[in-house]
Amino acid sequence: MINETQITESHLGKPVVQLAEIGQIALTVRDLPKAKAFYKDTLGLTFLFDAGTMVFFQCGTVRIMVGLPEGSIEDTPANTGTILYFKVENIQATYEALKAAGVVFPDAPHLVARMPDHELWMASFRDPDWNVLELMSEVRAG
Fold first, then answer.
1. Per-residue pLDDT for 43 more than 60?
2. Alpha helices in 1-142 (DSSP H)
């Protein structure tokens, strides 16, 4: 429960809480076995465990939960807006490997922004349930 002190502090430009790390990301899918195979076998995420209508993976320091909707599948829209950004060292090699595995990309990796010390490159694709996923790579000059 937020008290008046916390609300007052938030109006002074100070956050009530400061969230600094993602611990888990959840994605809703329509076909759990197909999604499990995609995240495990195609993307190579470390499989952690099954929990009924959910499967869990580890990706670096972030856990990813992939699960069926709580209500009926027919009432749950596909692609609910969550985007996962997978940080990779070599975006071109990763893109080529995924493409060879049957992943469809609307376009090749492309430059998104030039930063003072690196370039940000991205390439989007979708999982079997049409959730948007992105490859991202911070390419250092030199």
1. yes
2. 4-11, 32-37, 91-100
Q: What is the pLDDT of residues 98-135, one digit of tens each?
A: 998 999 999 999 999 888 898 999 899 999 988 889 99
Q: Distance between CA 29 and CA 130 in Å, rounded?
A: 9
Strands (E), 60-141: 62-67, 84-87, 110-114, 118-126, 132-140
Q: What is the mean pLDDT of residues 63-88?
A: 75
Task: Determine how many CB atoms are found less than 10 A away from the CB of residue 44.
Answer: 14
Contact 24, 64 (CB under 8 A): yes
Set out the domains of the chain in order of their start, with CATH numbers: 23-70+79-140 (3.10.180.10)
Distances (CA, A) of 5 to 13, 19, 49, 80, 94: 13, 19, 42, 35, 49
24: amino acid identity, one letter: Q
Residues 137 and 90: beta-carbon distance below 8 Å: yes
Q: List, in sequence order, every residue forming a beta bridge with 132; answer none if it has no partner.
A: 126
Q: Which DSSP category does 20 fall into?
A: -
* Predicted local confidence at residue 36, as pLDDT: 97
Model pLDDT, residue 40: 97
